[in-house]
Specification:
This is Prenylated flavin chaperone LpdD-like domain-containing protein. It comes from Paenibacillus polymyxa. It is built from two helices and four strands; from the N terminus they run βββαβα. It is α+β, with helices and mostly antiparallel strands. The radius of gyration is 13 Å and the shape is globular. Strands 1-4-2-3 form a four-stranded mixed sheet, with helices on one face. It starts with a strand and ends with a helix. It has one domain (about 5-90).
Length: about 100
């Protein structure tokens, strides 16, 4: 897709599409939150980093559900997904 990037983050007990965040370096970040999903905590954090590193458009689709997750488990999973996003950006920078 040229300089454009699509990132898919899914997992847990019930992978799904919960949140989509899109943007570009010179455009505002836009998020679509489906139903009451809260994956925007992940997608928007990664979007801010992508926006600084890439000239193209990007979309981040995310949906992960863990049955009966505690607040601590949600925090750990969110932190892990954000770390993976950072690693992805590092890999993409090396590939240029």
């Amino acid at each position: 897709m040229g300089e454009d990037i699509i990132v898919l983050i899914s997992g847990g007990d019930q992978p799904h599409l919960g949140t989509i965040t899109a943007g570009a370096r010179l455009e505002p970040i836009q998020t679509v939150q489906l139903q009451n999903h809260k994956e925007f905590y992940i997608t928007e954090e990664i979007a801010v980093r992508l926006r600084k590193e890439f000239a193209g458009n990007f979309a981040i689709c995310c949906g992960a559900h863990l049955d009966h997750a505690t607040k601590d488990e949600i925090r750990v999973l969110t932190d892990m997904a954000i770390q993976l996003g950072k690693e992805l950006i590092g890999e993409l920078k090396q590939a240029r």
